[in-house]
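User: Before I run my own analysis I want an independent prediction to cross-check against. Here's the chain; please return only the structure tokens and, at the end, one sentence I can use as a sanity check.
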Amino acid sequence: MRAVAEAGDRAAFAALYEHFAPRLKAWLMRLGLPEDVAEEVMQDSLIAAWRRAASFDPAQASVATWLFIIARNKRIDRLRRERRPEIDLNDPALVPEPEPAPDEKVDAAEEEAQLRRALQALPEEQLHLLRLAFFSDLSHRDIAARENLPLGTVKSRIRLALARLKSRLEQG
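Assistant: Structure tokens:
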């Protein structure tokens, strides 16, 4: 390890790799990693050891202990990434909708006002059933049971209310 740290000795690192790679991989597999993932983590660990060879201190740990600690930390990092995947900032679901143009805002406000006027012009029994169907998200059968009305009456009133709304909205 000293030769790797001081001189970047590739032959010394190759010997280190040959000795520890199968041991690290087997240990990672015993910890439950699939073979291909254990192989990846082992390689990441040994690459990290190559890059940080200068930080190795034989007074604190043996080479084996140091390498296994690096592998353990790489395994933990991998598990954390899998549990909390990285967020793709380019994901269309995360990109906010563009602010509508001022004329679109005005058009939307006018359409909303027109819809409100059309709703207010409906008879109360039709408006009430529409609210239950669309705002309370009740089925026609549930509305009939709740309002103690025949199912056909509920369907007819809602159909009539929608036809009246359509007619008023088409008139402008």
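Sanity check: Residues 33 and 75 are 9 Å apart (CA to CA).
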